[in-house]
Amino acid sequence: MKNALATPFGPVSLRARDGVIVALDWYAAEAEATAVEAEGLRQLAGYFAGERQVFDLPLGWGEGLNGAVRRAMAAIPFGETRTYGEIARALDAPAQAVGQACGANPVPILIPCHRVLGARTLGGFSAPGGVETKVALLRHEGAAGLLI
Q1: Quick check: 112 and 146 in contact, CB under 8 A?
Q2: pLDDT per residue over 5-22, tens digit each?
Q3: SS3 call for 11
Q4: Which end of the chain is more exposed for a tag (fewer CB within 10 A), N or C?
Q5: Which residues are known catalytic residues?
Q6: Positive or negative CA dihedral for 58, 138, 41, 47?
Q7: CA distance linking residue 71 with residue 116, whole number of Å
Q8: What gap in Å lies between CA 25 and CA 17, rounded to an integer?
Q9: How far is residue 115's CA from residue 76's CA, in Å, rounded to a whole number?
Q10: Quick count: other Cβ atoms within 10 Å of Cβ 119?
């Protein structure tokens, strides 16, 4: 199976190392998908089809604050959001550092950084389309309380 999935935002592919997904790329990879990459693409297809709300995959969480923020993002339920400040308070970390950790998330969607918003803004999103893609993902999930 090719390591690519067509999404509403263009093709995505996954990268795994030692059986753990470590990155989601916003392009179609040339290589064949490994077993874990193929399963990740299958689960992503289910997410975009509206059939899946939770991912069950081995993910590279990272270390330190980045790892803690990624786990906090993954704990945000489908269709809900949190602010950078809420996560910062829960982790006893500066909100700016939480924002930087969100921006450094190498596995967007699977680790749902799109569910994290600023207190009065949408915050950023590093995918193609930027904040518009973030809003589209939140709408796909039926997230309430969007600022637009």
Answers
A1: no
A2: 999 999 999 999 999 999
A3: strand
A4: C
A5: 113
A6: positive
A7: 13
A8: 14
A9: 7
A10: 10
Q: Kindly report the CA angle at 101 between 106 and 130, in degrees rounded to 5?
A: 65
Nearest to 39 by CA among 17, 55, 18: 55
Domain ranges for the chain? 5-48, 64-140
Report how far apart, in Å, the C-alpha atoms of 140 and of each of 66, 94, 98, 99, 107 are. 26, 30, 24, 23, 18
CATH number of 64-140: 1.10.10.10
**What torsion, rounded to 10 degrees, do the Cα atoms 95, 101, 103, 107 define?**
-140
Six token digits for residue 8: 């509403």
Sheet holding 10-17, edge to edge: 5-7, 10-17, 20-25
Element of type H or E holding 17: strand 10-17
Tell me the residue length of the chain.
148
32-52: pLDDT as tens digits: 999 999 999 999 999 999 999
Q: Which two tokens stand for residue 99?
A: 């924002």
Which position has the token pair 């509206």? 50
Amino acid at residue number 125 = F
Interatomic CA distance for residues 87 and 23, integer angstroms: 22
